[in-house]
Amino acid sequence: MALLPPEVSSRIFSDLDVESLCHAAATCKGWHRVIESDDRLWRHHCLSARAAFSCLFFHQITLLRNYWKSKVKQEWLSGKYSNIPSQNSLPEKSMYPMDVDTWGEILEAELER
């Protein structure tokens, strides 16, 4: 899959159940990067508590991290943190580590408000 564009790899991985997705993520570094970085692959799995326990501990942490990353991203994009009086007013999880593209989306949304 190293030769495929990330969006094609993500589309292929989107057809996997959570256990297969976890096994694929453990296959190689390239697949792991694609799977771990795509919030859409994990979103529906994160909504099911049963699915969260079907992977090994490492992958459960990945599920939770991607869930919180997705949740925080949506809160930023929805304007929840717009017009705050100071940085001290931000909850701790509001600054969850995200990639440059995600922060770019958030900045664009803020500039449009």
Automatic annotation (TrEMBL):
GO terms for cellular component: cytoplasm; SCF ubiquitin ligase complex. Pathway: Protein modification; protein ubiquitination. GO terms for biological process: protein ubiquitination; SCF-dependent proteasomal ubiquitin-dependent protein catabolic process. The keyword Transcription does not apply. Residues 1-45 form the F-box domain. It holds the Pfam family F-box-like. It comes from the Eukaryota. Coiled coil: none annotated. Keywords: Ubl conjugation pathway. PANTHER family: F-BOX ONLY PROTEIN 48 (PTHR12874:SF9), F-BOX ONLY PROTEIN 48-RELATED (PTHR12874). This is F-box only protein 48. It comes from Chlamydotis macqueenii.
